């Protein structure tokens, strides 16, 4: 975990923690580009939907 020290408006010191598992915001364009890369690599061996879902999982960190 990553800790951050900050101050509130009334001057109190606070410590906040961020989990390294915080989800990265993935744009539709990122998914589209990765799905296209998968398509180019695999050709017509998988559907557009399969490529999209695979890219989405991969970019989200669910696929290793």
Radius of gyration: 19 Å
- Output the strand order for the largest sheet: 1-2
The helix count comes to 2
Low-confidence segments, given as residue ranges, are: none
Q: What number is the mean pLDDT?
A: 79
In percent, how much strand structure appears in the residues?
15-25%
The 3D shape can be described as rod-shaped
Number-wise, the strands total 2
Main pleated-sheet profile: 2 strands, antiparallel
- Find the structural class using helix and strand composition: alpha+beta
Helical content band = 40-55%
Distance between the termini: 21 Å
Order of helices and strands: EEHH
Explain what you see:
- The chain is an alpha+beta fold.
- It is built from two helices and two strands; from the N terminus they run ββαα.
- It has a two-stranded antiparallel ribbon with strand order 1-2.
- Helix 1 (28-42) packs across helix 2.
- The two termini are 21 Å apart.
Write the layout of secondary structure elements.
Layout: E1 2-7, E2 13-18, H1 28-42, H2 48-60
Antiparallel strand pairs: 1-2
Helix pairs in contact: 1-2
């Amino acid at each position: 975990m990553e800790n951050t020290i900050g101050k509130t408006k009334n001057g109190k010191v606070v410590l906040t923690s961020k989990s390294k598992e915080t989800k990265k915001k993935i744009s539709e364009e990122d998914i589209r580009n990765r799905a296209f890369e998968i398509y180019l690599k695999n050709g017509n061996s998988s559907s557009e939907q399969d490529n999209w879902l695979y890219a989405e999982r991969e970019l989200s960190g669910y696929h290793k």
